[in-house]
User: What shape does this take?
Amino acid sequence: MYEEKNHKHENRFHYKQRNMWTGILFGLGVVAFIDEVIFHQLLHWHHFYDKSTANIGLVSDGLFHAFSFFATIGSAFLLADLHRRHGFWLKRWLGGIFLGAGVFQLYDGIIQHKFMKLHQIRYHVDILPYDLVWNILAAILIVIGIILLFQTTQKAR
Amino acid sequence: MHSHEAHIQNFFTFGQQILAFPFFIALIFYIVAVIVSNQHKKQWSHYRTSCWIVGCVSALVTLIGPLASLIHVNFVAHMIGHLLLGMLAPLLMVLAAPMTLLLRTLPVNTARTLSRIIRSPYFRFVRHPIIASTLNVGGLWLLYTTPLFNMMHEHLLLYIFIHLHIFLAGYVFTIAFIYIDPTPHPHSYVFRSIILLVALAAHSILAKYIYAYPPQHVIATQAELGAKIMYYGGDAIEMIIVYILFYHWFKSARNFKAAISSHSNYSNEPRF
Assistant: This one.
């Protein structure tokens, strides 16, 4: 049933949850990847390992690092599968991406930067504006994601 | 003092030759098996044969030759060796499907005995994702966070045992997550994904730990570079494993309808 094109509209309701989770995974993976490439490797604002006292930092960073590439590869396959089943729902998928990206950025900004003091966004500058931009941006991403997901929850529009 | 070091050096050259021997044998046996079985079965894929050759070679370069002698004195070289012997060689050799080749080459009765051995409780236990991950990543934690790393360079038997373990644990780890050869007791994709994720995280955490706390007698700069090689090089190989795991899921998910109608055909491949 789900492999026929004319059922496309119903299919996306059928795969509603999967559209959302695929987006969340992709959002998490991509933001973690961007963080690592831009801030760690290109700008050198913060590094591989900044603080040699917080052991918990090692654990959380390692877990998120593994998760970032796992999520990116996994969500690409989940997305391909949704397309194959004609159940892809762009708006809901985007909602998932915004939510996943925002949650990761907020986690990074609050837990990793502030609670664990694993590393800061940048050193030898006034950190407050950076932190504000970082976390407000994260909150905006989350709000956009939630709005998009809410709009795609109702079955009849 | 100098002659003592030379003595140790010779000692380990001997150990390395012992370790290299099985890989030479494996390389020759595989090629012979391909030639023999090609005579009465359809052509064995060249892709698999090349995987086996490259896999054996990457294990061999860590055991004999210039890199092998550097490994004793240089932690960076040691880490490159770890990636080649413990991760790349096992992955490539798994992709070469040696069991499938063996089963189709051996006479039917011997092949049956072999497949009975593969199905035994022992192999079932060892290739359980959690056990395989503990053997593999847990073993590495033990090696790099205890005096074991130093002891390894002083006792020949320990040296041989640890190197064998690193390769075998890497192999068992790979077959616990990606099913290329016949797999008697498969685990679901979700379960394998979760355990794989934890194992990969434990590997990157260990790399960072080495960066921050170098093993005894390892110079800090070498430990830092070695840790980075372990971290990023490990990523590259782990990404291939994750990719194959999801690719298999993707293929099996397409057969969803077919699998329901002919329930026995795909029973080997659990669904997401």
